[in-house]
Amino acid sequence: MSIPSKNRVLIANDISSLGFSTLAEISSQSLLAEVDLLRSVASLKLTQDKKGSMGQFLTPASVAELMAGMFDRLDLPEISLLDAGAGIGSLLAAFVTKVCQHQEHISTLRVVDYEIDPFLIRYLHQTLKLCEKECQRLNISFNYEIRETDFIEDTVKQLEIGLLNSTNPGEFTHAILNPPYLKINAHSQVCKLLRSIGLETSNLYTGFMAATAQLLKPKGEFVAIIPRSFCNGPYFRDFRKMFLQMMALQQIHLFESREETFSDDDVLQETVIVRATKQQQKSNNNSSGIA
Hints:
disordered N terminus, 19% strand, alpha/beta, 7 strands, 11 helices, disordered C terminus, seven-stranded mixed beta sheet
């Protein structure tokens, strides 16, 4: 749903005065439209400086719907979804909408969201309640958890204590993410954490991708919107090697214009959407051509 800019301040004021619980009761709009309204309101209240410092830009409904539509394996009786850096939950809402279109197969949907911004978490709770309501309508058991902790740190901790190993290779059947786009210092704590699992990288988004891959079950599906920069150059060589050892690239979606993906936030970063599948053993034949 696209909201004219001249109306957005009025909408933000109206929603603020009504309160979050009122929005959940609006039944005349689709789930995606309601969540995109939440996104527009949240985006208005976030300063451009804060968006840049966090490296997180909220995903428009059109992009979220495109990403959710790229998953193949939605006919499972039980689905577990990881959304790392969930924001207000646009991606998970698009995924839930897509799953609900296949409700004849699924009985249980579990969602785990990582988010550390208290401001965004308020909206994320509301999105999850809307998703729960939609699943209840279709008799799908919906369970969710918000992990208010650093995603990279938590994943590394699981690896260190052996929660992820050959007998317990992963927790999730699906992962969808719009990771933070943020350069990281070689001496920072997050770089040390990523280095401890064998990844040397210069941007946080590749750390999120690598950590997400670790958490997927064999044959688990992964869809992410990311900068195109990971495809070439020496800065991301370690990441490409690690990622392609775990994951098989299935699809890369290119946008016609770099200006339209996150147009509300004036982001000109050239982005792509990638779909990949977790493999138990990666063949030495690198058919993707990315090195």
